[in-house]
Amino acid sequence: MSGKRDRKYFIVKHDLHSFRALPGIIWRTGMPRSKVPRNFKQVKIGDRWIEFAYIKDEIDRERCSLIMGFYECTREARYGDVSLRRRRSAWIDDWIDRAWMIEGKRYGEQPRYKPVSVPSIQDMLGRKVFERVTIMPIHGTEFIRIRKVALNRQLDPKMIPHLGREPLNEQEVLSIVVGGHSALGIDKIIEVQTRFPDMLGCIQERSATHRPKISLGVR
Description:
Largest sheet: 7 strands, mixed
CATH class of the largest domain: Alpha Beta
Distance between the termini: 43 Å
Number of strands: 10
Number of helices: 5
Structural class: alpha+beta
Strand content: 25-35%
CATH architecture of the largest domain: Roll
CATH superfamily of the largest domain: ph1033 like domains
Order of helices and strands: EHEEEHEEHEHHEEE
CATH topology of the largest domain: ph1033 like fold
Number of domains: 2
Helix content: 10-25%
Protein backbone atom coordinates (compact mmCIF):
# COMPACT_ATOMS: atom_id res chain seq x y z
CA MET A 1 0.00 0.00 0.00
CA SER A 2 2.92 2.35 0.67
CA GLY A 3 3.74 4.94 -1.99
CA LYS A 4 0.44 4.63 -3.79
CA ARG A 5 -2.55 4.94 -1.50
CA ASP A 6 -3.18 4.89 2.21
CA ARG A 7 -5.16 1.91 3.44
CA LYS A 8 -8.79 2.69 4.17
CA TYR A 9 -11.05 1.20 6.81
CA PHE A 10 -14.77 0.49 6.83
CA ILE A 11 -17.66 -0.93 8.79
CA VAL A 12 -19.86 -3.28 6.76
CA LYS A 13 -23.46 -3.73 7.85
CA HIS A 14 -25.53 -6.81 6.99
CA ASP A 15 -28.03 -8.96 8.82
CA LEU A 16 -26.76 -12.15 10.46
CA HIS A 17 -28.07 -14.39 7.68
CA SER A 18 -26.18 -12.44 4.99
CA PHE A 19 -22.85 -12.74 6.80
CA ARG A 20 -23.35 -16.45 7.41
CA ALA A 21 -24.48 -17.01 3.83
CA LEU A 22 -21.33 -15.64 2.17
CA PRO A 23 -18.52 -15.28 4.75
CA GLY A 24 -15.88 -12.71 3.84
CA ILE A 25 -17.96 -11.23 1.02
CA ILE A 26 -19.74 -7.89 0.99
CA TRP A 27 -22.71 -8.48 -1.29
CA ARG A 28 -25.77 -6.66 -2.49
CA THR A 29 -28.60 -7.96 -4.64
CA GLY A 30 -31.50 -6.15 -6.26
CA MET A 31 -29.32 -3.69 -8.19
CA PRO A 32 -28.40 -3.94 -11.90
CA ARG A 33 -24.89 -4.04 -13.31
CA SER A 34 -25.30 -0.41 -14.40
CA LYS A 35 -25.82 0.87 -10.84
CA VAL A 36 -23.00 0.37 -8.34
CA PRO A 37 -24.15 0.26 -4.69
CA ARG A 38 -23.12 3.25 -2.61
CA ASN A 39 -19.49 3.18 -1.39
CA PHE A 40 -18.70 -0.16 -3.08
CA LYS A 41 -16.12 1.47 -5.36
CA GLN A 42 -14.31 2.97 -2.37
CA VAL A 43 -13.06 -0.41 -1.16
CA LYS A 44 -9.75 -1.32 -2.80
CA ILE A 45 -7.40 -4.29 -2.45
CA GLY A 46 -5.70 -4.16 0.95
CA ASP A 47 -8.42 -2.10 2.62
CA ARG A 48 -9.94 -3.59 5.78
CA TRP A 49 -13.40 -3.80 7.23
CA ILE A 50 -15.33 -4.83 10.33
CA GLU A 51 -18.39 -7.03 9.83
CA PHE A 52 -21.25 -5.59 11.88
CA ALA A 53 -24.48 -7.60 12.09
CA TYR A 54 -27.76 -6.03 13.10
CA ILE A 55 -30.89 -7.68 14.50
CA LYS A 56 -34.14 -6.08 13.36
CA ASP A 57 -36.19 -7.00 16.43
CA GLU A 58 -33.68 -5.34 18.77
CA ILE A 59 -33.81 -1.87 17.22
CA ASP A 60 -35.92 -0.49 20.08
CA ARG A 61 -34.06 -2.28 22.85
CA GLU A 62 -30.78 -1.48 24.56
CA ARG A 63 -28.40 -0.46 21.82
CA CYS A 64 -25.58 -2.89 21.10
CA SER A 65 -23.57 -4.07 18.12
CA LEU A 66 -22.74 -7.58 16.95
CA ILE A 67 -19.24 -8.05 15.53
CA MET A 68 -18.73 -11.00 13.16
CA GLY A 69 -15.08 -10.59 12.17
CA PHE A 70 -12.34 -8.57 10.46
CA TYR A 71 -11.40 -8.76 6.80
CA GLU A 72 -8.99 -7.43 4.19
CA CYS A 73 -10.08 -6.87 0.60
CA THR A 74 -8.66 -9.29 -1.97
CA ARG A 75 -11.00 -8.55 -4.90
CA GLU A 76 -12.64 -5.21 -5.60
CA ALA A 77 -16.30 -4.60 -6.42
CA ARG A 78 -17.68 -6.61 -9.32
CA TYR A 79 -21.07 -7.68 -10.59
CA GLY A 80 -21.37 -11.40 -11.18
CA ASP A 81 -22.79 -14.79 -10.40
CA VAL A 82 -23.27 -16.15 -6.91
CA SER A 83 -22.16 -19.72 -7.52
CA LEU A 84 -24.70 -22.50 -7.20
CA ARG A 85 -22.43 -24.22 -4.68
CA ARG A 86 -22.42 -21.16 -2.44
CA ARG A 87 -26.16 -20.68 -2.74
CA ARG A 88 -26.92 -24.27 -1.81
CA SER A 89 -24.46 -24.42 1.08
CA ALA A 90 -25.83 -21.16 2.49
CA TRP A 91 -29.53 -21.77 1.86
CA ILE A 92 -29.75 -18.68 -0.33
CA ASP A 93 -32.95 -18.47 -2.35
CA ASP A 94 -32.59 -19.94 -5.83
CA TRP A 95 -33.68 -16.68 -7.46
CA ILE A 96 -30.64 -14.86 -6.02
CA ASP A 97 -28.03 -15.73 -8.63
CA ARG A 98 -26.36 -12.39 -9.42
CA ALA A 99 -25.08 -9.70 -7.09
CA TRP A 100 -22.56 -6.94 -6.51
CA MET A 101 -19.69 -8.44 -4.49
CA ILE A 102 -16.45 -7.44 -2.77
CA GLU A 103 -14.29 -10.37 -1.66
CA GLY A 104 -11.95 -10.47 1.31
CA LYS A 105 -9.84 -12.72 3.52
CA ARG A 106 -9.72 -12.89 7.29
CA TYR A 107 -7.43 -10.29 8.83
CA GLY A 108 -5.60 -11.07 12.06
CA GLU A 109 -7.12 -12.64 15.15
CA GLN A 110 -10.82 -13.44 14.84
CA PRO A 111 -13.48 -13.94 17.52
CA ARG A 112 -13.50 -17.55 18.68
CA TYR A 113 -17.28 -17.50 18.73
CA LYS A 114 -19.35 -15.01 16.82
CA PRO A 115 -21.15 -12.74 16.91
CA VAL A 116 -19.53 -10.78 19.76
CA SER A 117 -21.83 -8.32 21.48
CA VAL A 118 -20.17 -4.93 22.06
CA PRO A 119 -21.51 -1.49 23.02
CA SER A 120 -23.22 0.42 20.23
CA ILE A 121 -20.74 1.27 17.49
CA GLN A 122 -22.36 4.69 17.21
CA ASP A 123 -21.77 5.27 20.94
CA MET A 124 -18.15 4.13 20.68
CA LEU A 125 -17.49 6.44 17.74
CA GLY A 126 -19.52 9.30 19.15
CA ARG A 127 -21.39 9.88 15.90
CA LYS A 128 -24.11 8.42 13.71
CA VAL A 129 -22.58 5.75 11.51
CA PHE A 130 -25.32 4.34 9.30
CA GLU A 131 -28.13 5.68 7.22
CA ARG A 132 -29.21 3.37 4.38
CA VAL A 133 -25.79 2.16 3.34
CA THR A 134 -23.98 -1.18 3.63
CA ILE A 135 -20.43 0.24 3.74
CA MET A 136 -19.37 3.13 5.96
CA PRO A 137 -15.82 4.60 6.09
CA ILE A 138 -14.13 4.96 9.50
CA HIS A 139 -10.66 5.98 10.68
CA GLY A 140 -7.89 3.44 11.18
CA THR A 141 -7.70 4.26 14.89
CA GLU A 142 -11.43 3.55 15.17
CA PHE A 143 -10.99 0.19 13.44
CA ILE A 144 -8.27 -0.73 15.97
CA ARG A 145 -10.37 0.41 18.93
CA ILE A 146 -13.51 -1.52 17.93
CA ARG A 147 -11.44 -4.61 17.12
CA LYS A 148 -9.76 -4.49 20.54
CA VAL A 149 -13.10 -4.15 22.34
CA ALA A 150 -14.59 -7.08 20.40
CA LEU A 151 -11.65 -9.40 21.09
CA ASN A 152 -11.65 -8.47 24.78
CA ARG A 153 -15.38 -9.12 25.13
CA GLN A 154 -15.62 -12.36 23.19
CA LEU A 155 -17.19 -15.35 24.84
CA ASP A 156 -15.11 -17.52 27.14
CA PRO A 157 -16.77 -20.97 26.93
CA LYS A 158 -15.25 -22.01 30.26
CA MET A 159 -17.51 -19.51 32.02
CA ILE A 160 -20.74 -21.09 30.73
CA PRO A 161 -22.22 -23.31 33.48
CA HIS A 162 -22.49 -27.05 32.78
CA LEU A 163 -21.88 -26.95 29.01
CA GLY A 164 -18.48 -25.28 29.00
CA ARG A 165 -19.11 -24.25 25.40
CA GLU A 166 -21.33 -21.96 23.37
CA PRO A 167 -24.99 -23.09 23.42
CA LEU A 168 -26.14 -24.32 20.03
CA ASN A 169 -29.89 -23.82 20.35
CA GLU A 170 -32.65 -22.21 22.39
CA GLN A 171 -33.18 -25.25 24.60
CA GLU A 172 -29.52 -25.29 25.63
CA VAL A 173 -29.67 -21.60 26.56
CA LEU A 174 -32.66 -22.22 28.82
CA SER A 175 -31.06 -25.28 30.40
CA ILE A 176 -27.92 -23.26 31.19
CA VAL A 177 -29.93 -20.54 32.89
CA VAL A 178 -32.09 -23.01 34.85
CA GLY A 179 -29.20 -25.21 35.96
CA GLY A 180 -26.62 -22.49 36.43
CA HIS A 181 -28.69 -19.47 37.39
CA SER A 182 -26.79 -18.91 40.65
CA ALA A 183 -23.49 -18.66 38.78
CA LEU A 184 -25.13 -16.17 36.43
CA GLY A 185 -26.28 -13.94 39.29
CA ILE A 186 -29.96 -14.94 39.16
CA ASP A 187 -31.33 -15.74 42.63
CA LYS A 188 -34.52 -17.52 41.70
CA ILE A 189 -36.29 -18.96 38.65
CA ILE A 190 -39.99 -18.13 38.91
CA GLU A 191 -41.38 -19.56 35.70
CA VAL A 192 -40.34 -21.21 32.42
CA GLN A 193 -42.81 -21.19 29.54
CA THR A 194 -43.07 -21.87 25.81
CA ARG A 195 -44.25 -18.39 24.85
CA PHE A 196 -42.19 -15.20 24.97
CA PRO A 197 -40.58 -14.37 27.36
CA ASP A 198 -39.23 -17.86 27.86
CA MET A 199 -38.31 -17.39 31.50
CA LEU A 200 -39.10 -15.19 34.48
CA GLY A 201 -36.65 -14.86 37.35
CA CYS A 202 -35.51 -12.41 40.00
CA ILE A 203 -32.25 -10.88 41.18
CA GLN A 204 -31.68 -9.82 44.75
CA GLU A 205 -30.67 -6.16 45.02
CA ARG A 206 -27.87 -6.15 47.55
CA SER A 207 -28.68 -2.64 48.72
CA ALA A 208 -32.47 -3.06 48.92
CA THR A 209 -35.05 -5.44 50.36
CA HIS A 210 -37.20 -6.08 47.28
CA ARG A 211 -36.34 -8.42 44.44
CA PRO A 212 -36.67 -6.96 40.94
CA LYS A 213 -38.03 -9.41 38.38
CA ILE A 214 -36.26 -10.07 35.12
CA SER A 215 -37.49 -11.75 31.96
CA LEU A 216 -35.43 -13.74 29.48
CA GLY A 217 -36.54 -14.15 25.88
CA VAL A 218 -34.53 -16.32 23.50
CA ARG A 219 -34.77 -15.61 19.77
